[in-house]
Amino acid sequence: MVLVQSLDKIDFIYNKLYKEYGPQGWWPLINYKGINPTKTGSVNGYHPGKYGFPKNEKEIFEICLGAILTQNTSWPNVEKALINLNKEKLLGPKKILESEEKIVKECIRPAGYYNQKYKKIIIFCDFFISLRGRTPKRKELLNLWGIGDETADSILLYAYRKPVWVMDTYTKRVFERVGINIEQKKKMKYEKMNEIHALLVEHCKRICLKKKPKCEDCKIKEICLFYF
DNA sequence: AACCAGGACGTGA
DNA sequence: TCACGTCATGGT
Length: 228
Description:
The chain is mainly alpha-helical. It has two domains: 92 residues, Endonuclease Iii, domain 2 (Orthogonal Bundle), CATH 1.10.1670; 108 residues, Orthogonal Bundle (Endonuclease III, domain 1). Helices cover 54% and strands 0% of the residues. Helix 3 packs antiparallel against helix 9. It starts with a helix and ends in a 20-residue tail after the last helix. It binds a DNA duplex through helix 3, helix 4, helix 7, helix 9 and helix 11.
């Protein structure tokens, strides 16, 4: 116990969850499906243990689009939309802008909110082209209609490999439970930031954020303020 | 068959 | 600031 408390909580969580779940291979890319046989319903595993993604502009764009499409939406639905777009050869900003509204909306329909998300995507395509390959600033992303804190940080972390925290429902949940002040989050190298966020998502899906949390199976319960 | 998913925005208090 | 309604499909 004393030893645990003396360790940094973030490191403790990272080590425990990594040992339990293994590398998660985020962000999902549709051309790297199913490499990792481990899964929890929504995820097939992608490129676990490899942090060299995205490898090109197309993959960067795909991640950005996925980040928008997955707003309040389960990943399988997003994946359907991305596969549809890919089939229509629309996984590129210019292609989408040149395409008919009807076509694009039909592709992204499985991801839900397709009217709103179409609008968000069009705005983002414009912005993405204007970047000409450079990394966007967080404020620039937030200025875009349809991109809030979480989507912006997801894009920065997974599309542009910036070591930032994505404070989504899952991360907030664990931080709250183990008593990590979200104002004093520790920054680490990109690879670790990438992995720990994915691990927190996996942990919440399996254990912490289920209707009835499975606290008995939780590997980090020793530092949980809600566990007795 | 309700419930909810890797949110963001607009509105009114 | 903050609480609430809206947006929509698909899996459990």
